[in-house]
Write a structure and sequence with these properties.
single chain, 233 residues, mainly alpha, 12 helices, 0% strand, globular
Amino acid sequence: MRKIKRLFLIIVILISIAIFTIFASGYVRYRQVILETPLETKIAEIKQQEDYVTLDEIHPDFLNAILAVEDPKFYQHQGVLLSNIIEAFFTNLKEQEYAMGGSTITQQLCKNLFLDQKKTLHRKVAELFFVHDVEQSLSKNEILELYVNIIYFGDGYYGIKQASLGYFQTDPKDLTIAQASLLAGLPQAPAIYQLSTGYTLAKQRQRIVLEEMVTHHYLQEEDIPQILQQPLS
C-alpha cells in the first residue's frame, strides 16, 4: 500500500511539474511577444490598412453567419469557453487527430495577431494570456471587427473586404445572404474551401453555415434551399 501511495505521489508531482513548466513557458512566450509589439501598436497597424472596414460597413448577414458558425456565444463569454475545450478534446481523442480546435473568436484573433499556427500546449497557454488582455482592453464589437478584418479566406484574400471584392466584386455592405454565408464558411479551412479550387466543398460548408444560422435564430429553415440556389455574382 505504501508503495502505491508513493507511486501515486510521484505521479502527481511529475504532472504538477509538467503543468507548471507548460504554463511558465507559455507566459514567457507571451511576455516576449507583447513587449516586442504591444497590443495597442498591433491594433493601430491593422486599422491603418486600406482594406480595413468597420462593422457598419459589413452586411449583417455576414456577421450573423460568422457568429453562428464560429462562436455563437461570443457576446456571452469572456474569451474562452470551457465547454468548447472539453468538446474539442473528446472529439480529437475520438478521431485520433486534431479534428476540432474549440477556439472562440477572441482566441482565433489572438492567435492570428501574435502567434503561429503550431498546435503546441505552450502556444495555447500564451494565447490565453493574450485573450485576457484583449477582452480587458476591447469591446466585443471591436474584437469582432478586428477578427473579420484579418482572417484568411483563401486565394490570397485577407479580411472581409478583400474576400468580398475578390470573389464577388462587391463591397462587404452589399453582400447577399448567399454570398455572405458562403464566405463565412471559408476561414475554417481556407486552403480546402477557397473558391478557385474547392468550390464544391465550399458549397457543402455553406449549408452547414446556414443550418447553424437556423439553429441560432438568424434564419428560418425553409429559407435554406432558396439561398443555396441564389446566384453568387
